[in-house]
């Protein structure tokens, strides 16, 4: 009779630690080093890897299944998080993660030159998680020459300098937010838009917003 080699359970091997990954919108995998008795195991010969829930923000896992001289399986978990200051594009609009507290800054559009209408939402989903859109970045839509209509979501508190500067066709702006202040609206945010641009604002904020908008460049 032929000799049978001893089979080792994969759980007895040494498996390198998994790192926290940054959400990119693509499935994340990472390199693993697996050793037994000082020898490095080979992926595909000694084991196979199955990755799970490894795209969105949250907890991902990898299952290491023994093969050949190894049997059994081990599952290891790792976290996927958003990166502070990373910019993500959702439906051609760009958002920057401002902190770990679930808020983002609208920073512009990938089709800025061609875009005619813009709705800055109250929330946006990135990596399966909902973020509040609380700010419009500096120069976010400046020089968007074809832009005619803008809707500003209810969570916006800050508007960066020159945000809509030079949007020469901008003639309709609806502001759903009641949280805008002169102090948190940057210089020339609305400079160079159509002089007869119509603003629709919450009833409670009409007089305050009139002053604010004029101070920031609206006609």
What is the typical, i.e. mean, pLDDT? Answer: 95
Q: Largest sheet, described in full?
A: 6 strands, mixed
Individual helix count: 1
Give the class from helix and strand content and strand pairing. mainly beta
Form type: rod-shaped
User: Could you name the ranges where pLDDT drops below 50 across 5 or more consecutive residues?
Assistant: none
Question: What is the beta-strand fraction?
Answer: 35-45%
Radius of gyration: 26 Å
H/E topology pattern: EEEEEEEEEEEEEEEEEEEH
How many angstroms separate the termini?
96 Å
Total strands: the figure is 19
Q: Percent of residues in helical segments? A: under 10%
Characterize the structure shown.
The chain has 219 residues and is mainly β. Helix content is 5%, strand content 37%. It has one helix at residues 206-215, and strands at residues 8-9, 14-15, 21-22, 34-36, 39-40, 47-52, 58-66, 70-71, 73-81, 87-90, 93-97, 103-109, 117-120, 123-126, 129-136, 149-152, 158-159, 172-175, 198-200. It is rod-shaped and about 90 Å long. 30% of the residues are buried. The model has no long low-confidence stretch (mean pLDDT 95).
Summarize the structure.
Helices cover 5% and strands 37% of the residues. It is mostly beta strands.
Give the tags.
219 residues; mainly beta; six-stranded mixed sheet; four-stranded mixed sheet; 1 helix; rod-shaped
Topology diagram in text:
Blueprint: E1 8-9, E2 14-15, E3 21-22, E4 34-36, E5 39-40, E6 47-52, E7 58-66, E8 70-71, E9 73-81, E10 87-90, E11 93-97, E12 103-109, E13 117-120, E14 123-126, E15 129-136, E16 149-152, E17 158-159, E18 172-175, E19 198-200, H1 206-215
Parallel strand pairs: 1-8, 3-9, 12-15, 13-16, 15-17, 16-18, 18-19
Antiparallel strand pairs: 2-4, 4-5, 6-7, 7-9, 10-11, 11-12, 14-15
């Amino acid at each position: 009779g032929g000799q049978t080699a001893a089979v080792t359970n994969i759980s007895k091997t040494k498996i390198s630690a998994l790192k926290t990954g940054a959400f990119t919108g693509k499935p994340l995998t990472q390199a693993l080093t697996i050793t037994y008795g000082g020898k490095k195991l080979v992926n595909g010969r000694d084991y196979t890897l199955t990755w799970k829930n490894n795209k969105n923000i949250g907890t991902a896992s990898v299952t290491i299944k023994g093969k050949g001289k190894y049997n059994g399986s081990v599952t290891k978990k790792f976290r996927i998080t958003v990166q502070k200051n990373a910019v993500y594009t959702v439906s051609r609009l760009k958002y920057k993660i401002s902190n770990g507290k679930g808020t983002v800054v609208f920073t512009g559009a990938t089709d800025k030159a061609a875009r005619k209408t813009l709705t800055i939402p109250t929330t946006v989903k990135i990596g399966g998680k909902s973020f509040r859109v609380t700010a419009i970045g500096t120069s976010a839509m400046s020089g968007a020459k074809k832009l005619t209509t803008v809707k500003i979501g209810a969570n916006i508190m800050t508007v960066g300098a020159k945000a809509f500067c030079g949007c020469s066709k901008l003639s309709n702006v609806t502001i759903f937010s009641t949280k805008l202040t002169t102090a948190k609206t940057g210089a020339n945010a609305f400079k160079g838009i159509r002089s007869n641009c119509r603003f629709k604002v919450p009833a409670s904020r009409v007089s305050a917003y009139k002053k604010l908008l004029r101070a920031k460049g609206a006609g």
